[in-house]
């Protein structure tokens, strides 16, 4: 069901937009494994993007944030070493600071919360809770 994401190179990154759900995941993350199990059980087709190996561009991350209706600090893993070293917990959280947050998250993609599910309906969810996964499965079913 799942397949690796491939595509055209853009500044050293590989990504292509094709139909179906895309999951930004970390293979060693238990929440990502749980999300995969939920999607597999519901027979929802998806493809995987190992975002630590295929980091998003600033433009991609900005688009994902738009789809999530979130700000970068909403999906930033502030406990990660890269965030602590940068002092990100104390960074301003205002519109003028958004580019700085995105730049840091692109430079250190481990700061991006996971898994992120990009849905065919143009939305996205952070699939860390059963409720978020249920929502993603429901929304995937309505776009078939």
From TrEMBL:
It comes from the Bacteria. InterPro entries: Arsenate_reductase-like, Thioredoxin-like_sf. Pfam families: ArsC (PF03960). Gene3D superfamilies: Glutaredoxin (3.40.30.10). Signal peptide: none annotated. It comes from Micromonospora inyonensis. SUPFAM superfamilies: Thioredoxin-like (SSF52833). This is Arsenate reductase. Belongs to the ArsC family.
């Amino acid at each position: 069901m799942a397949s690796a994401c491939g595509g055209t190179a853009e500044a050293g990154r590989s990504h292509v937009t094709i139909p179906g759900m895309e999951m930004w995941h970390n293979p060693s993350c238990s929440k990502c494994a749980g999300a995969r199990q939920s999607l597999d059980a519901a027979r929802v087709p998806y493809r995987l993007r190992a975002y630590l190996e295929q980091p998003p561009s600033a433009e991609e991350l900005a688009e994902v944030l738009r789809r999530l209706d979130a700000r970068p600090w909403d999906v930033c893993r502030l406990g990660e070493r890269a965030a602590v070293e940068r002092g990100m917990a104390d960074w301003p959280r205002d519109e003028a600071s958004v580019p700085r947050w995105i730049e840091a998250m692109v430079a250190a993609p481990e700061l991006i919360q996971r898994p992120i599910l990009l849905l065919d309906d143009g939305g996205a969810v952070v699939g860390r809770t059963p409720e978020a996964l249920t929502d993603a499965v429901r929304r995937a079913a309505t776009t078939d």
